[in-house]
Design brief:
Elements lengths: L1 H27 L9 H11 L13 H10 L5 H26 L4 H12 L10 H17 L4 H15 L7 H21 L7 H28 L7 H18 L9 H8 L6 H7 L1 H23 L7 H24 L6 H23 L4 H18 L11 H4 L17 H16 L23 H11 L5 E6 L4 H4 L3 E6 L7 H8 L3 E4 L1 H5 L1 H4 L2 H8 L7 E5 L6 E5 H5 L3
Parallel strand pairs: 1-2, 1-3
Antiparallel strand pairs: 3-5, 4-5
Helix pairs in contact: 1-4, 1-5, 1-18, 2-3, 4-5, 4-6, 4-16, 5-14, 5-16, 6-7, 6-15, 6-16, 7-8, 7-9, 7-15, 8-9, 10-11, 12-13, 13-16, 14-16, 15-16
Amino acid sequence: MIRSRGAWARWLVAALVLLLTWKTTWGVLGTFDLGFDDETIYLEAAHWAGKRFLPLADSSPLYPLWYRALSYVEPDPVRLYFLNWFVLTAALPALLYALARRSGAPLAAAAAVAVAWSTSTAVTTWPFVSKFAAVVLCLGALASTAIRDRRLAASVTVAALALTAYARAELTVPSFVFAGAVALHCLGVAVGTLRGPPTSARRGERARSLLALAISVLVPLGLRRLFGDPHQGGRAFFAFGQHYALNVVEDRRLGVDPWTLWDRFAREAFPRATTIGEALRENPAAFFWHVRRNLTTLPVAAAELVAPLRFVPRSLAAIVVLAVAVVVVAGACALVIRPSRLDRRLTAWLPLLAVVALTTVGSTLLVYPREHYLLPLACLSLSALAAACARLRWPSALRPRFWLGLPRVPRLAPSRRGAALGPALLVSGLALLGAALPTRRAALPSLLASNEPAPPEVHDNLRTVELLRSLRLRGRVPILEADHSRGVYAELDFVRVAQWEKATSFWDFVHARQVAVVAITWRLREDPRFRSDPEFVAFADGTGEREDFQLMPVPGTSVVLAVRASALARRE
């Protein structure tokens, strides 16, 4: 009876959480621009995946393959970029809610963390590869909650970590260490069952242990065989060097772009290093200065990740923040005070959470606490804390019946209690919150107005891609640009000419690389290699030599496309 009476609340709360998530995600869609570089490299790799080669192991190959799968639904690269964002962003709060509930979380706690996530800046966190990693980890954790045998559950988390390592390379070594530990344990149990009489229980335990052993060994090794070693190449040191430069630029308050000039600052401190370990040995003082600065930045980045979106009215934001704070404090207390009473389904994936936590803290201290690095850990942690809340005994003063002044119903009549009061209040609160919450671009009705002005209607990168598409260029098109790359979204046969390749005068550089298109953006103008070159300055301002380049200002933006007439002549 009690279970059937509460079923309506479980389904209705889940539906309201999904609707609220969809509303916030749909409302943000279309309010932000294309992001080049990291995310575009993944999308470009998806174009070639399965045609010429698999993506490199150290370039998150699983994520381009996910892009590739989505491209069968939406082949246009611009719309594919936003479709990917929408699917991953809308899926995470739903998975967070499902994982929390499956791990034993009360309705209110699970709803609080899911709503908080769907209205937080995690919605707009870029690049999106960490959202994909969080989805894979949440699915692995969900799968482990459905398995009663601890060894099989651990092997499922091994598989989830091994898969995620090909989206977040820093998980590679920890996932292999964890896989080895699980494999050794399963092997020990299987060997132990050989002792004593051969009963059916021993045979069943041996079979489960061997299955878990096979999963723990074959999945990581199979992925490594398919994709290779994620630590090949110098991507780890590249990330370390770029973020060391970012720390230097921020500390010295320099007005330069650390992403394109990172080698200048990194080589000042680490002239010969090619790995993070070599950097530590070469200059320990600079290395630990970088780590200490990251340590002070870490709490700020974590707070910014889960902070409410700026357009959410302060009154609603305060309610959501307060609810999550209660869940976090209560869950943390339960983990510390009553760890032995935690739900079996929660403890099934706590090892996964521990591996992700150790990896995240280590990588953020060594590289930089960027918000997207912290995103998978934050998502899993909120689910775990919400689930742990179920093991706390709340004081009577914190229960709705007390502060509403309702009389206490005797425990002898459970079917007659006001058991529906709490769920009814929760459902009403979620419905009111969903109706009151505005959307970023006023796409859906709401009771409250946005906390900030409407977003801009013109986005520089999108408008530039539209103009580049309209030119219908054919043949190989070398593009000089400070980002990678407009050519992906314009669907050109392009060659990106990066600004850091310039070592001569502007025109000598253009002739040597046979540049056909120049994307004149603020980033290219401010690059010291170009800003100090009078030939480029006169060319960009339209006051000097242009040869056969035609300058095409992108309407509504500060971007100018310079296109050679010979490239335009190749149009159909």
